[in-house]
Each structure stands twice: as structure tokens, then as C-alpha cells.
Amino acid sequence: MDAFANNRGLTYAVDPPAATAVAPVELCPEPCWYAVSTRSRHEKVVAQEFCVKQIEHFLPLVPQRRRWSDRYVTIHEPLFPGYVLVRMVQAEYVQRVAVLECRNVVRFIGDDKGAWPIPEAEVSSVKAVIESRLECSPYPYLRKGTLVEVIHGPLAGATGILIREPRRHRLVVSISLFARSVSVEVDVADVRRRNA
What we know:
Layout: E1 32-38, H1 43-53, E2 57-58, E3 61-67, E4 72-78, E5 83-88, H2 93-100, E6 105-108, E7 110-111, E8 114-115, H3 120-132, E9 136-139, E10 146-150, E11 159-165, E12 168-175, E13 180-186, E14 191-193
Antiparallel strand pairs: 1-5, 1-6, 2-5, 3-4, 7-8, 9-13, 10-11, 10-14, 11-12, 12-13
């Protein structure tokens, strides 16, 4: 369940990152995760092109059941529509250009100084949710809440905000750079409070 993004020139979004995202002062010499914006409903196409170009990427997909005229089908839709994550060294001009030259990539998320990196822990947490194969769904982005780490079970190592619902608890994992979240049911005994 992996995937990633086109443009002729190096362009960037102008939206400021969320409070937990870190904007680089200079181009990072180490591999980091970055978000690229794609044309609407072209995330899978971009991911396929990244595969062909051997660009490391991550496109979280979630199964959704849809009714067609005569039957139900399960299709896999992007968890974060309009975005694909890429792991690269931003200081490497050739890597940046290779990403932007992919068809249907719009831009990196960042500013005129460069793309803003996504914290490794956020990407790892989303990967843990997807790879667990537990039922998950998009959730409104939360700026405040009790930060916890999962210490047992298929989500071990994932961090997020714990919310209480009637008869259950849910872990909300977010990518703060573009303020999107996913939630998954979790046993409260499997988590511990984490200091921010």
C-alpha cells in the first residue's frame, strides 16, 4: 500500500505548517518524508510513476465498500486525498526534479525556501495503522488532546491522541503538515500517556 507526485517548475504551497511540523532553515542533507500535492483523484497514478522511477513513497490506502448497480465491491481509496508522501534528500536537486517531473504532481508542500519535512514518528504511526489491517477511517484533525503511545498489539509504537467514545476508545493519528487524521479503535490497556 505504497504510493507518490508533476510539475515543470519547482513550486510550493504557501500554507504555513501546523504547530508540530518543522520548517527547515536550510535544505536537509538527510532523507526525510515530504508531502506532494497531486491533481484530484490522481494519487494512485502518481504512486505508480514513483514506482517506475524508484522513488521511495507512501500512499496509505483504505478499503471502502461501494454499491454498484448489481453488486457491492471493495475498492481501496487514498486515506489522505490529494497527497502522496515521498522520502528523499531535499538537498539533492536531481531527486526533487524527478518528483516534480512526474505527471499529475502539483507541488511540494512548503514555501519558497523548500519543502517542509514531516516528522518520522507521524509517518510511522500512520504506517502502523495501515499495516495493522484494523478498521480505520478519516477523522477530523485534532490540535489538542491526551498524547499516548501504543505499547502492545498490532499498533505498538504508534503515537496519537486518545479519544473516548461511548463504550470504546480511539487513537487519532495525524499528519500535522496538512492537518489530516485517521482514527482506529484501541484498547485503553494497550496505551500509555506520553509527555509532549
